[in-house]
Amino acid sequence: xxxxxxxxPRPAARPNFLLLVLEMRTYLALLLVxxxxxxxxxxxxxxxxxxxxxxxxxxxxxxxxGMTFVIITxxxxxxxxxxxxxxxxxxxxxxxxxIYIGGGxxxxxxxxxxxxxxxxxxxxxxxxxxxxxxxxxxxxxxATLGTLYVARGVSLLLSDGRTFPNLNGNPEYGSDxxxxxxxxxxxGLPVMIWxxxxxxxxxxxxxxRTPLGRHIYATGGNERSAALSGVNVDRTKLFVYMFSGLMxxxxxxxxxxxxxxxxxxxxxxxxxxxxxxxxxxxxxxAGGRGRIWGTIVGAFVIGILADGLIMMGxxxxxxxxxxxxxxxxxxVIDQFQSRLQSRIALAQETEGGR
Length: 354
Known about the structure:
This protein is mainly alpha-helical. It is 69% helix and 3% strand. It has helices spanning 17-23, 25-40, 47-72, 80-97, 111-134, 140-159, 180-183, 191-209, 211-221, 223-228, 233-259, 270-280, 292-311, 316-352, and strands at residues 99-102, 105-107, 185-186, 189-190. The strands form 2 sheets. The chain has a two-stranded antiparallel ribbon. It has a two-stranded antiparallel ribbon with strand order 3-4. The longest helix is centred in the C-terminal third of the chain and has 37 residues, at 316-352. The chain is globular. Mean pLDDT is 89; it is low at 1-14.
């Protein structure tokens, strides 16, 4: 009687507790900083402080969402802070001065038109970054560092280094609603929070449900393999930098609207907060990995950390040190997680092949 020989079933993959902790690090960090400041910082749990933190988080989150897409493709965008300053100055200029077209005529714009123009400015700067990187093959770090200086310089030139004050708009031109962008509320929530919710849902949809999202991850995972698979790598990179520029323009508009003034120095070091939020949220600096929702949680960690340190009276110098350490720690942990995942995958393949 012949015996049937069957292959032994492969052992089930054993869960790794350390890897699980690393994957949940953003949520654990959020829980820790929230609990710490709730205990140590006075009035941290007040409603007014919660609204203030949410506004600060929203500003960082917009930039971090754009930065996440850029980093997933294996790039970096150092220009976003300067683009915030530039677009805020453009918004202030349009509200106050309009555009002189010659012959003694000046064209003034309503709020919607101002927002559209300023967003186009941000997209254009992102397009310049994308062209430098894809067509001229300039390294992302160098290309965006160059546009950082150019955008900041143009911001200074627009007003000769001065502030555009009193951006209350003019009812005659329909620009009097401009301050509502940064200070208005809808159903009890600030307008900027509703805008962030919309942008977050759009970004999640793009990343999870569209071919473009798959192309973004494929480009960062292995650019050559993606190109051989039919992915238009240059077009994908162009999109992420233009999207990042758009996010910076939105932040520039929000800040100018909140303050009812625009200053060319606005946005300095904003790129560091955006990078920190993205990396802390699980986006790999090596590219190919990242989640929008993780970035939002990372933005909350950075926002709560910054506001909590201020409420405790910590020096702004020490705040910069702490943010820098957070970025370094996030990158180190990400590298450790990648190596651990590789070792676990190799061990499972070896065990399964026996």
